[in-house]
Amino acid sequence: MRLRSVLSEALRNIGAGVSHAMLMFAAVLFASTLLGGYEAVNVVGLETEAVQRINAYADVNAIVGGTVDGAACDRLADAGGGVMGTLAGAMRAGQQIVPLATPGKDISSYEVTPGMIRMIAGSTKSDVSGVWVSTDVAKDFGLTKGSVMQTEQGTMSVAGVFDWPNDGRDTRFAYAFLVPVSASNGTFDECWVRQWPQSGQTEDVLFSTLVASGSSSNAGVTQVNKSFDSHYDAQASYEQRMTRWMPWLGLAVGLVLGAFGVRRRRLEYAGALHSGQSKGAQLLEITAETMIWSGLACASSAALLGAYCVRMSGADAMTVWLGAMRTPCAIFAGVMVSSMLVGMTIRETQLFRFFKQR
Q: Quick check: 19 and 13 in contact, CB under 8 A?
């Protein structure tokens, strides 16, 4: 048979319902979307957990109880590392600020290095020409970026406003002024380092910022937000997720569906061989039919999974989608391979046995 005739026959079988293409299409679509979707949901959950930790400063460690070299602390950012890079800055308690608008009410202030401002503001180019105020302070005094505030300590220009929610993180910055100072302006009380994903060397580099003194012997490393597990490992959580076996399960499902799709028509195929159809033409016909309904099902599943990933993934929808698509691709491969293998086992001599077993 000519190639055109074989493909035409395959299309007629699908159009006439002989191949039950819609049933097989629905089975592959259901399996691909269910298993691939389970993988996507699991990865999005891990992604959401990681984003929640990052937003809550659970990825920030601080060394406390010692004397910190501010310049050495800020230089830790130059070391880099991690997907998001490294941010580091030092801080120390400053004088109490008393606004002229509320005499008798003082507000805590902290002197911080430029690196700390970059960490708090989330920008590599943060304005250090004035003080930074928390959103609660800004709301109470009507302050915005560029505002001027009169205090008993003098006039203060507001360089920026930062958000510091009550989500378990250190509460000292929740209602405070951050006053930028030079990193070489004396020593500091604490050094904060933010890195994602965190490396096992964070504690060592924090200790490297200490100035040799008697008080530094009592220094220790702690989390800025202690409400989160300190032993969290994002990479290990991803590698040990339960759905990492989904492609293999999908392959097994595909092998079963492909074998089922051919075996249920084995009498028809044996009869075609008896009528003079060549084995090569028959295998090509099986391949064409299977590729059409299984390919369309996988493509439809890809669209559904893509829509979910775009809607639910907060960081990298494409990466999540590519990971989830491994399962539909495995199902498609399993269907194609098993349909061909089972098709190869059907012979004309089995016609009468198949006829009796129908």
A: yes
